[in-house]
Design goal:
By secondary structure, the protein is of the alpha+beta class. It contains 13 helices and 29 strands. The strands form seven sheets. It has a six-stranded antiparallel beta sheet with strand order 18-29-20-25-26-27, with no helix packed on it. A hairpin with a 2-residue loop joins strand 5 and strand 6.
Length: 708
């Protein structure tokens, strides 16, 4: 499964991005053009693994923004066993490679518990990252339950590394037990931000998108009709009024926006090639004909979160800063490299979801929930290259896999009675091209965007806000939301709203939505993004953090909670003869964080809101050899996120530097990199050092971080 890829992105489903691995599997197997996800990452993954609706297993939104309500707490219950747990109990070897994003954030430290890490969810082996996204060049990696360092290689790429580990696991499993069945769940980091393809792949797409998103979407819809992946009479869904037309943009905007799309396309094409390497290994070892391969192009629709201009740094939104397009234009050559954490402009997201309306996070419309999917199983699928148009949901994957394996889901797993599996096996569709869909109803709710499907009809809330509104409108109470109505039996793309023409049908479907929402764990409808209320806090009531270094990595949830607070750092160190070099205390990395460190013996403090908003404070005299007390006083103008602050550096109680921080973090210090003492092991907060030179050359005896 890839990440943040729209229905109209891949060549397999008429898109502009060549995906030959996906194409080849489609030619050998079946394409599904009415397969649906949940509109965002964690819920789709939890639903896929458990065979249940996401809120029913606690994953109503992304794991990083859990709330205290049962349907949204990010805690997959023991009563919702995963397909990996079930298959492992039935003699399968199991592995997960790539993106996890289903572990509660407060359980991600070395303190555990590890029940909801991949190895606690039934996977005997895990290699990848636990969070929402990761740098392709400098990832925050985990192997099983231990953090591991990516190779210090300028040519390193995460997608290639993931494929290497998948191939190695297949080889070792096959060598040890060639007749033993296996489950491999392989989830790329691509094409979620950051889009950082290898330079030679980036070069392949130069100039390919200069015609813009309007032309790209129109060409995609035309190809989709030629390929037959959408019905011939399908109308493209109406264009959002707030989305700028490509021909209205300046030459500089077009050049910048096209570069973002080049990076996205190159990333997806490269990831598809790495998936191809894994599948080739199954051909090489003779298992390809006996292996069911399910390739889902995206865990939700393509993202429009880049809004008007795209983002050079995805972290800008988390840090509460608006990016200056002039800055991005000046750094255009950083797009696609390790020096940017780029996210495509929302116009491309809209175009990549052709022919459907809206995008990722819009659980109300197919632009957020419809993803291209292919199944290949040569000994069992007798219609190679066929198309299947039954309506299905990501929760149907687990029942399909279990049926293919001949395994019955247990009523009790590890001593715990199991919740009903609401997914429906898709196996009937293998031989029956025109069979009626066994799934007749499905409810969707994501970020307060709501919909329900019933026998081809869809009732959906109109979005409260679009990604292209400079000034978002005020929230609309849930009982005042406008609902739309579509008959997708004749209107495949949700292009024609029938709400005014058929009010009784709409009323009946709205009633159905609320009934389904009550049983699926969706209630209460609420906004959770950025909220922390009701979730466990490992540091609740803790005002003093003491470390005897070096220590690390400690994830955000267990690190000192400095967002919105004044704080002090006091470090007792022994400097070598040259004054010392390296990090004393750090949280974050290249795209956001803070670091207290020595540079040629001189104490320095860097506050990196984003690389475009970096503040540095430095002492002028190097430390003398011997024991010293290094201090930092960070005083907020007011105790609140984003407030300005004043930072003062001290050596042995004496002020050596003072500086101004105009704006501080809004939500998190870093959503991808951790807190450490004595090193900065993933990427540097300050380019004055690198990962190797970040290691402290003296001795750190104790570091105290205190909050008011």
């Amino acid at each position: 499964m890839t990440d943040d890829v729209g229905f109209g992105a891949s060549s397999t489903f008429g898109g502009p991005i060549p995906t030959p691995t996906f194409d080849a599997l489609a030619q050998a197997g079946l394409r599904y053009n009415q397969f649906n996800t949940t509109a965002i990452c964690s819920p789709t993954r939890a639903s896929l693994l458990t065979g249940r609706d996401p809120q029913a297993v606690g994953m109503g939104y992304v794991a990083n923004w859990a709330t205290g309500y049962d349907g949204y707490n990010s805690v997959i219950p023991k009563s919702a066993g995963t397909m990996a747990q079930i298959l492992k109990e039935n003699g399968y070897n199991t592995a997960m490679i790539g993106k996890g994003h289903v572990t509660p954030e407060w359980e991600m430290s070395r303190a555990g518990p590890f029940d909801r890490w991949p190895t606690g969810l039934g996977f005997e082996y895990f290699y990848g990252f636990l969070g929402a996204d990761s740098s392709m060049a400098e990832p925050n990696l985990v192997e099983n339950t231990a953090h591991v360092q990516a190779p210090a290689d300028p040519t390193y790429h995460l997608e290639h590394d993931l494929a290497d580990h998948a191939i190695r696991w297949i080889d070792e499993q096959h060598a040890a037990a060639p007749d033993k069945p296996f489950l491999l769940y392989y989830a790329t980091g691509t094409a979620h931000a950051p889009n950082q393809p290898p330079a030679d792949w980036m070069a392949r797409f130069r100039g390919k998108f200069d015609a813009g998103w309007d032309a790209m979407r129109a060409e995609t819809v035309a190809r989709q009709k030629r390929l037959g992946v959408i019905p011939q009479g399908t109308d493209d869904a109406p264009r959002p009024d707030t989305l700028p037309r490509w021909d209205s943009l300046t030459a500089d905007q077009k050049r910048l926006y096209a570069r973002y799309m080049e990076a996205y396309a190159a990333s997806l094409a490269y990831a598809d090639a790495q998936i191809g390497r894994v599948i080739q290994r199954l051909r090489d070892n003779g298992e390809i004909d006996n292996t069911l391969i399910i390739y889902i192009q995206g865990d939700n629709g393509a993202s429009a979160e880049g809004s008007f201009d795209g983002k050079l740094f995805e972290q800008s939104a988390l840090s509460g800063v608006k990016e200056n397009p002039d800055y991005a234009l000046a750094h255009i050559d950083d797009i696609g490299t390790r020096h940017a954490y780029n996210l495509i402009p929302g116009g491309w997201g809209w175009a990549l979801n052709a022919p459907f309306p809206w995008a990722k996070r819009y659980g109300s419309h197919f632009g957020g929930t419809r993803n291209g999917m292919v199944m290949s199983w040569p000994r069992h699928i007798q219609d190679p290259g066929g198309l299947r148009s039954q309506f299905h949901h990501v929760s149907d994957i687990m029942p399909t896999v279990l049926e293919a394996a001949g395994v019955k889901a247990p009523e009790i797993l590890d001593g715990v009675p199991q919740k009903p599996i609401t997914g429906i096996s898709m196996g009937y569709s293998f031989a029956a091209k025109d069979a009626p869909s066994h799934r007749t109803t499905q409810v969707f709710a994501m970020a307060q965007n709501l919909s329900v499907y019933k026998d081809g009809w869809v009732a959906a809330t109109a979005p409260m806000v679009t990604p292209w509104e400079r000034t978002p409108p005020p929230p609309v109470p849930i009982d005042q939301r406008v609902w739309q109505l579509y008959d997708t039996r004749s209107d495949f793309s949700e292009a024609h709203d029938l709400a005014a023409a058929q009010p009784q049908k709409l009323a009946a479907l709205k009633d159905l939505f609320w009934a389904e929402a009550a049983t699926a764990g969706i209630l209460p409808i609420h906004g959770s993004e950025g909220g922390q209320k009701g979730r466990p806090d490992p540091n609740a009531g803790r005002a003093l953090f003491t470390y005897h270094g070096p220590i690390g990595p400690i994830p955000e949830s267990a690190a000192p909670g400095l967002v919105g607070h004044s704080f002090t750092i006091r470090a007792q160190v022994t400097a070598p003869a040259d004054g010392g070099q390296g990090v004393i205390a750090v949280h974050g990395g290249r795209f956001g964080g803070y670091s207290l460190f020595l540079d040629q013996g001189r104490p320095r403090f860097t506050y990196n809101l984003t690389p475009a908003h970096m503040s540095r404070i430095a002492g002028t005299a190097p430390l003398t050899a011997g024991r010293h007390d290094i201090g930092l006083r960070f005083v907020m103008d007011r105790e609140a996120p984003t407030s300005g602050a004043t930072a003062t550096l001290l050596v042995d109680g004496k002020k050596v530097a003072r500086g101004r921080i105009d704006r501080t973090f809004a939500l998190v210090v870093s959503h991808t990199e951790d807190f450490e003492i004595g090193q900065d092991s993933i990427s540097p907060v300050d380019p004055a050092y690198d990962v190797v030179s970040s290691h402290f050359t003296g001795t750190i005896e104790q570091v105290d971080i205190s909050l008011p």
